[in-house]
Amino acid sequence: MIQVREDWWKDFFNDIYLVTDARSVSDDELTRREADMLEAVLKLDKPDKILDMCGGSGRHSIELARRGYKDITVLDYSDFLIDMGKSLAKKEKLKIDFVCRDARSTDLKENSYSAIFIMANSFGYFLEEEDNLRILKECHRLLEDGGRLLLDLTDADYMRRHLKPFSRHKADEDTTVCRFRELTPDSIKARELVVSKKRGLLRDGRYCERIYDEEGIESLLANARLSDISINKGLSLHQKRKDYGFLTSRMIVTSRKR
After folding, report:
1. Range of the domain at 34
2. pTM score
3. Which of 48, 49, 248, 255 could potentially form a cystine with 71 if both were Cys, beta carbons 3.0 to 4.6 Å apart?
């Protein structure tokens, strides 16, 4: 059985993460397709005030800023990723605010965002469901009336049918990533080994993701007083057919504050 710390996410997203997940987080074409999806599904307008919640280095926000959106905030707990995003935005002279905060309690101004998105399965990190609900309640607090929320989640039904207990891929010429996965009724627990030919073992880490079916996420959103829920399942934005873990088959969920 894979044992996972409750606060695994506090120190997981560092320079090694950029290597292990490079085929997604460093894929510029994928980011552009994801930004296309955000614009279309959220019906974004250039004046919108946008929050990229749990946004890491803000790759989606940087792409949106390139397209002319000028009121964007990226929020993430990882100071490493936030600092990286600041440097990237500064290099391109893009106006984006970056804040390092806990998504359950952001201290941002209430009723102030037209749209919030949580991309790349960055929702569901907490073992206790009440903590995940707190993020949705915080999104409700931050959204203006009529504001839209988009969640990019793994499709629980797909994962239950197709989960691979073991996967291995070469992140680059030097680095191999091995993942061992366990399925529970409401989550996937994983052990990740990252091995370098030159430097040996770089990481022996463990993480956990809550997985949601349609009924489960609808109930959670309703508990956060979000309505007009719409769900689109089976989305794949990667061009090549491979095992991309949680991002292989995605469920795009939208809701609104009324």
Report:
1. 14-155+212-257
2. 0.95
3. 49
